[in-house]
Amino acid sequence: MPLIQPLGVKNERVKESHQTTIFRIIAAILHLGNLEIQGERDADACSVSSEDEHLANFCALLGLEHGQMQHWLCHRKLVTTAETYVKNMSVQQVLNARDALAKHIYAQLFNWIVQHINKALHTTVKQHSFIGVLDIYG
């Protein structure tokens, strides 16, 4: 039986496959936050070890290519009208980008859950349905 069920919604449940996906995404976000970012000799460069188990778990949970994720976590692409540059990022820039990525993934998941609940609450009967959600993060 599914663990998540909107209160007061008759016979509407979150499918087990959706629950599994939700749990995978949340686990991926947690692993993303545990990545070890190593600063290089040059203060404007850093890296993530290919042996980092959190990176491996993050990629496996979301179906991402490990090598690409390892590279793009520490680099950014700048496109001009004439050329495209790939630049190193500092440790602080990588930490900020990592946190922004985690927040973006979480926000998309949260929006999906709210849409799913709203769809389950939708009815043609004239009644007042209400669900209150308090989301505190940070």
TrEMBL record:
Cellular component aspect of the GO annotation: cytoplasm; membrane; myosin complex
Pfam families: Myosin_head (PF00063)
SUPFAM superfamilies found in the cross-reference section: P-loop containing nucleoside triphosphate hydrolases
Domain Myosin motor per the UniProt entry, residue ranges: 1-138
Single GO molecular function: calmodulin binding
GO biological process, one term: actin filament organization
Xref: Gene3D superfamilies: Myosin VI head, motor domain, U50 subdomain
UniProt keywords, alphabetically: Actin-binding, ATP-binding, Calmodulin-binding, Motor protein, Myosin, Nucleotide-binding
Family note: Belongs to the TRAFAC class myosin-kinesin ATPase superfamily. Myosin family.
Annotated protein name in UniProt: Myosin motor domain-containing protein
